[in-house]
Design a protein that fits this description.
By secondary structure, this protein is mostly helical. The protein is 74% helix and 0% strand.
């Protein structure tokens, strides 16, 4: 009996002193409540609605089972949306991240000139996605935009890149790289500034050239930042949506849809909420699988 009393007094003392237990008890319930309300419950609703042919009004009653999933899996536009999403992922990893890393290495040292360059490169990330899309829609306009001006200078016919089935999505990818590489660059700059100068000086004393210092000292020194940046790039590619709407809206001929814009166009806009919920469930499962696999790979890399 006495031991139980002492134990309870010990817990009370920890809570009064602001120990780890009190922090968990104070911070965890609000986070769990928010996560449940805005993540768990909507996911359960989406999984439920995906089994119905439902237009969003009233209570769903037309049960169709897995028909919505089958319809999406057999839809050619959905196949194109998946391909575009994978292309976006490849562009993020093979172009956006290396470009951000190269610029970060060039301007990570503290100076007023580098500070100006950081600001210039980071400004596109600050812009809202819709505003970015609208700005670049004028740039690509073959009648009045920058594309029209270049065509006049070169004496050629104006080219409407956003109306081209072959080039519209690559124009979107150029906008995405322009907008988001500054975000990754700032992650790399913060990591590069934490690399000890002693390591760099030791490499120089050993006769290492700049390329060797970058490859053998700087890049290994920011490996955790590279992994975090890669995770953001992967998740961002799966969620790509806001830039597409003001640029093409998924056109021309549904050739520039990603999975999210496909969900929006063929689910929400057409009042086919059951079908849209099915696509959302598939996207969620894909995102979870990618996140788990990526996390396991990160843990393996950290262990090595």
């Amino acid at each position: 009996m006495a031991s139980g009393t002492l134990r309870s007094q010990g817990w009370a003392r920890k809570l009064r002193l602001g120990g780890p237990s009190s922090t968990v008890l104070i911070m965890l319930p609000p986070a769990l409540i928010l996560f449940t309300l805005f993540v768990i419950l909507p996911l359960i609703d989406a999984a439920y609605y995906s089994l119905y042919d439902w237009n969003g009004y009233g209570t769903p009653t037309d049960y169709v089972g897995t028909e919505n999933f089958t319809k999406a899996a057999n839809h050619s536009v959905f196949h194109r949306a998946i391909l575009n999403t994978l292309i976006g992922l490849g562009v993020a990893i093979l172009i956006q991240m290396p470009l951000a890393l190269a610029l970060a290495i060039a301007i990570y040292k503290n100076s007023w000139v580098n500070t100006v360059f950081r600001l210039v490169f980071f400004v596109p990330f600050i812009l809202a996605e819709v505003a970015t899309g609208l700005i670049w829609s004028f740039v690509f306009d073959g009648n009045t935009g920058l594309a029209a001006g270049l065509a006049n200078i070169m004496g050629t016919e104006p080219f409407f890149v956003l109306a081209s089935r072959d080039y519209a999505f690559y124009a979107i990818m150029a906008v995405v790289v322009w907008k988001y590489f500054g975000f990754h660059m700032m992650i790399y700059i913060a990591a590069l500034q934490s690399v000890p100068d002693e390591q760099i000086e030791a490499a120089k004393i050993e006769g290492a050239k700049r390329g060797q210092i970058i490859w053998h000292v700087l890049i290994p020194g920011i490996k955790p930042a590279l992994m975090v940046s890669g995770f953001f790039a992967v998740i961002g590619s799966l969620q790509l949506f806001d830039v597409i709407l003001p640029l093409t809206g998924g056109g021309p001929s549904n050739t520039t849809h990603t999975v999210v814009s496909y969900l929006y166009s063929f689910g929400l806009l057409r009042l086919n909420y059951g079908f849209g919920s099915a696509v959302g469930v598939m996207l969620f499962v894909a995102a979870v699988v990618v996140a788990v696999v990526y996390q396991r790979q990160m843990n393996k890399g950290a262990a090595q």
